[in-house]
Design brief:
Blueprint lengths: L1 H13 L12 H11 L7 H12 L7 H17 L3 H9 L4 H8 L3 H9 L6 H17 L5 H9 L10 H4 L9 H18 L1
Helix pairs in contact: 1-2, 1-4, 1-8, 2-3, 3-4, 5-8, 8-11
């Protein structure tokens, strides 16, 4: 269960749904924080409500058999739900505007309009933004912000000697082979750090 709380928290933070802060030491407090923040973006509201119903507000940690499927539902919902309103700010904590604009393939002026809410983020841009937030969430399990930026710039043998950032050029789609391989590499880092 601890791994799932950590995984959900990393994703929520990278997506801008939670502020970077020292994570609570106790699992129950970490769960309460997740349940209070994730539904504000319209994500996993039913799972959060159920987590509260199974006794999350009690002093004792509820039974893992009840919590695990709800956390898995929350993680799946985070994976499937771009929220550019929050993700621009979340990724803005990791990348400077020029770097973020280049990775997402938007002009700096468009980025500023999307961030300010002056213009709605188009779906294709939102998909790239969300993908990058998920990669950052995966890498946050192993790297700090500087390490994440460097990871994206380093050439990788498993990417045919190319850097991840080099595969994120033009109007790339998260479902294309290059981005899928980048996500797989980032996810594998989390799996290694969890064992």
């Amino acid at each position: 269960m601890r791994r799932l709380v950590f995984e959900a928290s990393r994703r929520a933070e990278a997506m801008g749904l939670m502020e970077p802060e020292t994570p609570p030491r106790d699992e129950n407090a970490a769960l309460r924080l997740l349940v209070s923040r994730v539904p504000r973006a319209g994500i996993a509201a039913a799972a959060a409500e159920r987590l509260n119903a199974v006794g999350l507000n009690n002093v004792e940690v509820p039974d893992a058999a009840e919590i695990v499927p709800l956390l898995e539902t929350m993680i799946a919902a985070l994976e499937a739900s771009p929220v550019p309103k929050f993700e621009w700010a979340g990724l803005g904590r990791v990348f400077g505007p020029d770097d973020l604009a280049a990775l997402i393939n938007v002009s700096l002026s468009s980025l500023k309009r999307y961030v300010s809410g002056e213009r709605a983020t188009p779906d294709d841009v939102a998909a790239r933004l969300h993908f990058l937030a998920l990669v950052v969430g995966d890498l946050a399990g192993s790297y700090n912000d500087v390490g994440i930026r460097r990871w994206l710039q380093r050439k990788r043998t498993r990417l045919a000697g190319r850097a991840p950032a080099a595969l994120l050029k033009g109007n790339w789609d998260p479902d294309e082979e290059g981005p899928r391989r980048i996500r797989q590499l980032a996810t594998e880092l989390v799996s290694l750090s969890a064992t």
